[in-house]
Structure to design on (176 residues):
């Protein structure tokens, strides 16, 4: 019976650890996304084509984002069209990358200027990151309340309540 309980506990611990790692990776990617968009915009302003810009990001993007851009670069190198290879980017990064993929695909297909659109995507990504940081900052007092109570309450009991009770008990002994 103890063995089964240990296995169930281990299973739930494993699931929680896996969920935490996934959440941490998503947070890291969300924090690195604005930098990647800014790097792509800088590469495009420097005269790179969108394909060269994606290759540039596979080498110079933040570490957590490089595998996604590298997968797109490998798909392009294997002979896939650029718009088809961009689907790989949204699969690796998630729905955050979809607007950038659409802009790059439209720029490749229609030849429209992309700098202003990518600049706006970078602004939106930075705003999103800022909102997430503000939400996390608002949740911090709630998260800290339990450790604060656990650490403060024993010291309150030891420093205030125990001497008061000891003094009252000693007064009772003197009066009896």
């Amino acid at each position: 019976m103890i063995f089964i309980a240990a296995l169930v506990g281990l299973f739930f611990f494993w699931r929680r650890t896996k969920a935490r790692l996934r959440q941490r990776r998503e947070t890291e990617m969300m924090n690195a996304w604005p930098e990647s968009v800014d790097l792509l915009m800088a590469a495009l302003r420097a005269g790179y084509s969108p394909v060269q810009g994606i290759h540039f990001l596979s080498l110079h993007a933040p570490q957590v984002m490089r595998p996604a851009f590298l997968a797109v670069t490998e798909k392009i190198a294997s002979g896939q069209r650029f718009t088809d290879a961009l689907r790989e980017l949204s699969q690796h990064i998630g729905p955050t990358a979809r607007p950038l993929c659409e802009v790059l695909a439209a720029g490749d297909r229609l030849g429209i200027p992309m700098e202003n659109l990518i600049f706006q995507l970078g602004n939106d990504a930075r705003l999103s990151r800022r909102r997430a940081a503000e939400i996390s900052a608002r949740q911090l007092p709630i998260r800290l309340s339990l450790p604060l109570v656990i650490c403060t309450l024993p010291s309150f009991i030891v420093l205030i309540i125990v001497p008061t009770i000891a003094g009252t008990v000693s007064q009772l002994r003197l009066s009896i």
Summary: Residues 147 and 153 are 10 Å apart (CA to CA). The radius of gyration is 28 Å.
